[in-house]
Amino acid sequence: MAKSRAVYVCQNCGAVASRWQGRCDSCGEWNSLVEESDAGAPAATRRAARGRVFELEGLAGEGRPAPRIATGIDEFDRVTGGGFVPGSVLLLGGEPGIGKSTLLIQACATLARRGARVVYISGEEAVAQVRLRATRLNLTDAPVELAAATQVEDILATCATGARPALIVIDSIQTMHTNMAESAPGTVTQVRASAQALLRHAKTTGSTIVLVGHVTKDGQVAGPRVVEHMVDAVLSFEGDGAHHFRMLRASKNRFGATGEIGVFEMTSLGLAEVANPSALFLAGRDSGAPGAAVVAGMEGQRPLLIEIQALVAPSSLGTPRRAVVGFDQNRLSMILAVLEAHGGLKLGMHDVYLNVAGGFRAHEPAADLAAAAALVSSLTGAVLPPDMCFFGEIGLSGAVRPVIHAGMRLREAGKLGFNHAVVPQSQQISDDGRGSGVTIRPCADVGGLVAAIARISARERTIARG
User: What does the UniProt entry state concerning the protein's domains (predicted)?
Assistant: First the structure.
């Protein structure tokens, strides 16, 4: 019997230390080392273990697409790549109260109504609480099997009885514990061991398992990063508590495209799918105010039109404010520097506020041109045409660089009634993009953008005088 010894494991990165210290040497996190026991197999047993010989195959061969189990929720199936793959394990993360359990209980109910066996294991709530949520969502008629349990061995033994479950939901992985690890639930060792046991069950039985994960203050899934490498897909459920919109985003997917998003709206009856998110994000916008520009963006394979709002005001502080919501702070600093260096604008004594409307987060560089247009519009007081959209990446030289999927962006803009699109001058436009009915206005650099908005401002002042 191996003698167990005490080790200290970082709860942030999983690094192991032989003694306690206030700061982890690997990730730099303070007060993250927790004492855990290290009871391993004897060295002689490990040396005596021998593996079996297996057959190796070549690259050539018939490839079959993975079978899918569609949930019936189109936005959910879009993100997963067409539905659940039998034997796969998914990790769903999100902030508390964002709607993770609501989304999963709706997916479980839809599958169960189609005749599939679905098991929902709650480690945080009692069965009565889950039933109360199902009653509120009008899902009590769905034959979903519920249980409140935290012991992994008990859960797997229960799921092994009767018909093979098509879907098993574990809410959440941080509450699970297994006898294979001698540490407290929620620690790195327990989360890793529990996830490994559930992953092994999914691969051997063919059941799809969805693990719900907590998130840290930085928005990352809590626990060891090795869990994200173990699972087949990592989904994040995002949203702002002040808005009804929720975005389901895939940051990893072995059976589909990454970067895909599904858009939902929180209603009194749960999460409702949003078939046309562009129209929803642009609803209620004030097209007659300066400092607003619409970007024709892409999220995965889906085009989205969202509004970027900017406010540039004189500052009375020695160091002007730079506040950003839904946009990268570093990219804003770069755009401001390029506008000063190559656009002739003086922004050093102005407070700058930038916001992406609707609680959305603009990640791609194609939003640079729209952000720059909104900043120039706010500074000059020029109101941009309400039927004009922008897309393009801004380089440090001031040049506007081309981006991908221009045709899809233009088609989406044409569907929503936009007549003009400011695009990079070197942008390649496909035939379907040119047939969208949107007039293409090429822009070579930020100097040309500033000059064009200045002409709009001068024309508006002339109209106001006359």
Answer: The middle region has homology to RecA with ATPase motifs including the RadA KNRFG motif, while the C-terminus is homologous to Lon protease.
